[in-house]
């Protein structure tokens, strides 16, 4: 059984669904810039319109209500609140999220707000982005503005989404915005994001009584090979992907071996108390000893598992292992803040149903083993702009025709609705 008060939900992100990229005083983000650069996005698409959620949010809330979810995780677009990432708030931007939050509450759905899901205001990027320590302080001020506007109604706060991915894909490999390929030279952006997290927690505590967490992308490490070098590589990857973005939050400091621009007092700010750990899970990562000098590990494809359309292995038991391991290491409450899969098929999508069934059972198993898991959020309620893949990868319980904006629930939508009802 799932514990009393367990939250079932679904998740989205602002740039992926909102559209209205130049309406209501919104400023440009790094993803606006990046997606308009030729060759960056697989199909040449952008987030200019995507699902047009900015205008169709009530229709989308109807879909959420039809699911029977307890909570909806969305993100707030920083450039919609502060077009330049600093200064006074944009009243039209605040008004949009006021309407969204009130409409959710009217339907009995708890608003779960993420402050940063990768859409940094371009004006801040022009001043160095997350390489610039000042961005952390601007993030704390932004959090204060949002807390003042919505703190009486948001039921759960998430400061950052997947700082590991934003660091590595956006600044290490250059796959994501802002497109910088600095390899391990990207690590200052990790520290400054976590510093911003701590400042945001402190600001939100003055504005809201609701709990606060962070959504970290986690991946259990599967060491491929039996040598000491393989095991050392696995430990190095675990430290980078998993421990680096959790342990300083809990007052444990950074793992050894990372050169980060830490100043006196930073670790105390980062360790501002949080109420839970947010866990985004998609798949484990195969790791073996390095074959080059660029990184202290090689990433290896896991074999023997079904694959999503993204080429990611489907390993539900990895979620049980992950939640159990996090419980053993840190003993904190957890929310599964993202869990989902890319499959094209509609209206029938049996692969997604099998995926979801396996992963909710994985959560149940972790709870039975003692892990304190308090919610599960499917990624995503609907198809959206899937970052560098554009519209070529579909994660939605609801199919979206991006030309007509017609929403069509897939069979997985109905399965999730019935499953949630069965847990009441």
UniProtKB/TrEMBL annotation:
<dbReference type="InterPro" id="IPR017736">
    <property type="entry name" value="Glyco_hydro_1_beta-glucosidase"/>
</dbReference>
<feature type="binding site">
    <location>
        <position position="117"/>
    </location>
    <ligand>
        <name>substrate</name>
    </ligand>
</feature>
<feature type="active site" description="Nucleophile">
    <location>
        <position position="338"/>
    </location>
</feature>
<dbReference type="GO" id="GO:0008422">
    <property type="term" value="F:beta-glucosidase activity"/>
</dbReference>
<keyword id="KW-0378">Hydrolase</keyword>
<protein>
    <recommendedName>
        <fullName>Beta-glucosidase</fullName>
        <ecNumber>3.2.1.21</ecNumber>
    </recommendedName>
</protein>
<feature type="binding site">
    <location>
        <position position="282"/>
    </location>
    <ligand>
        <name>substrate</name>
    </ligand>
</feature>
<dbReference type="InterPro" id="IPR001360">
    <property type="entry name" value="Glyco_hydro_1"/>
</dbReference>
<dbReference type="GO" id="GO:0030245">
    <property type="term" value="P:cellulose catabolic process"/>
</dbReference>
<dbReference type="InterPro" id="IPR033132">
    <property type="entry name" value="GH_1_N_CS"/>
</dbReference>
<dbReference type="Pfam" id="PF00232">
    <property type="entry name" value="Glyco_hydro_1"/>
</dbReference>
<feature type="active site" description="Proton donor">
    <location>
        <position position="162"/>
    </location>
</feature>
<dbReference type="InterPro" id="IPR017853">
    <property type="entry name" value="GH"/>
</dbReference>
<keyword id="KW-0119">Carbohydrate metabolism</keyword>
<dbReference type="GO" id="GO:0005829">
    <property type="term" value="C:cytosol"/>
</dbReference>
<feature type="binding site">
    <location>
        <position position="161"/>
    </location>
    <ligand>
        <name>substrate</name>
    </ligand>
</feature>
<feature type="binding site">
    <location>
        <position position="16"/>
    </location>
    <ligand>
        <name>substrate</name>
    </ligand>
</feature>
<keyword id="KW-0136">Cellulose degradation</keyword>
<keyword id="KW-0624">Polysaccharide degradation</keyword>
<feature type="binding site">
    <location>
        <begin position="386"/>
        <end position="387"/>
    </location>
    <ligand>
        <name>substrate</name>
    </ligand>
</feature>
<feature type="binding site">
    <location>
        <position position="379"/>
    </location>
    <ligand>
        <name>substrate</name>
    </ligand>
</feature>
<keyword id="KW-0326">Glycosidase</keyword>
<comment type="similarity">
    <text>Belongs to the glycosyl hydrolase 1 family.</text>
</comment>
